[in-house]
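Re: [ENG-882] Designed sequences occasionally contain unexpected residues at chain ends

Forwarding the minimal case from QA. Structure tokens:
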């Protein structure tokens, strides 16, 4: 088992994470407030931009292969080197969906948005 240093850019937070542990589990253990939800690599709530370093995250099904090169789902990501991560950064595909929803009037759910206007 090898331990790597994971630094969260802009926060001053640094933790040690074994290559057999996920970044998220180490954050929780260290009391770092890393956002998460599903913990199975699908929801992208725990997404972080990889500024420097490498991870393995074979079960990160919420990311395309291309996105997985630049982003880590901390619930799945295990370090393969020292890391610098920027929390709260989402893959471009997610950012594009949010921008499209905002341009079209907000709610992408359709009926839910219309019902809210009737109240």
């Amino acid at each position: 088992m090898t331990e790597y240093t994971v630094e969260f850019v802009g926060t001053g937070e640094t933790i040690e994470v074994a290559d057999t542990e996920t970044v998220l589990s180490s954050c929780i253990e260290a009391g770092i407030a890393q956002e998460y939800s599903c913990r199975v690599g699908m929801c992208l709530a725990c997404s972080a931009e990889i500024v420097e370093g490498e991870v393995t995250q074979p079960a990160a099904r919420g990311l395309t292969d291309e996105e997985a090169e630049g982003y880590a789902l901390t619930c799945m990501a295990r370090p393969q080197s020292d890391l610098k991560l920027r929390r709260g950064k989402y893959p471009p595909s997610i950012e594009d969906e949010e921008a499209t929803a905002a341009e079209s009037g907000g709610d992408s759910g359709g009926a839910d948005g219309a019902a809210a206007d009737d109240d």
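QA comment: On inspection the terminal residues look reasonable. Residues 92-103 form the longest helix (12 residues). Proposing we downgrade this to a documentation issue.
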